[in-house]
Amino acid sequence: NAGVTQTPKFRILKIGQSMTLQCTQDMNHNYMYWYRQDPGMGLKLIYYSVGAGITDKGEVPNGYNVSRSTTEDFPLRLELAAPSQTSVYFCASKGGSGQPQHFGDGTRLSIL
Amino acid sequence: DAKTTQPNSMESNEEEPVHLPCNHSTISGTDYIHWYRQLPSQGPEYVIHGLTSNVNNRMASLAIAEDRKSSTLILHRATLRDAAVYYCILRPDSNYQLIWGAGTKLIIKP
Q: Which residue of A6, A50, B12, B50 has the lowest C-beta tally within 10 Å?
């Protein structure tokens, strides 16, 4: 079972560059989430979506954008990369209220 | 949002039970208590969750205090593969978000 798939696994960007972190899930889940995790810390929610066409901001949305055109895909866009965005990014999905979140293996992003 | 407090780290011996505590003194009546764990270099993994009653599944047990101000995750027989960071998280029933703390790093000694 693929579950939640994130690409790429690693990336190095220069300051000011842009990129899209890809996330896709094959469980037909309505809820999807993007988190970032800084070293030694818990996860912080960037954006989330409760279904195709619906997205909302989480705790730390500045510098990021998302879209949800299909149930399966929830890409995260960084428009002008900054060193403060160096982190590990996790995508997650959830089937419904009360169900657990399923996580991808993460994208390790360094901005130099 | 209600917050949780966990010890930074705990050690346990292999094949012994482990009790991981979590304090959530400001929990509201509709907050669910979730536990996830994160193995090194992996994404978090769901362990268990509950509202008021104690819960059991194949991975662990969750003991919730009667006043719900604290809970304990119980691993009945720890193995080396249980070494991970364990997160105790509250999820409001009316909210889609999980508020994550720093978790407890569990070290299993062979």
A: A50
- CA A88 to chain B, closest CA, distance in angstroms equals 10
Cβ-Cβ contacts under 8 Å, A101 against chain B = 36, 44, 46, 98
B39-95 tens-digit pLDDT: 988 999 999 999 999 999 999 999 999 999 999 999 999 999 999 999 999 876 555
Cβ distance B98 to A101 less than 8 Å, yes or no, reads: yes
**Residue among B109, B87, B91, B78 nearest B31 (CA):** B91
Q: Which residues from B are below 8 Å from A103, CB to CB?
A: 43-45
In a 13 Å sphere around the CA of B12, the CA atoms on its Cβ side amount to 23
Is residue A100 less than 8 Å (CB to CB) from chain B?
yes
CB A46 within 8 A of CB A32: no
- Give the neighbor-by-neighbor strand order of the sheet with B84-92: B9-13, B104-109, B84-92, B31-38, B45-50
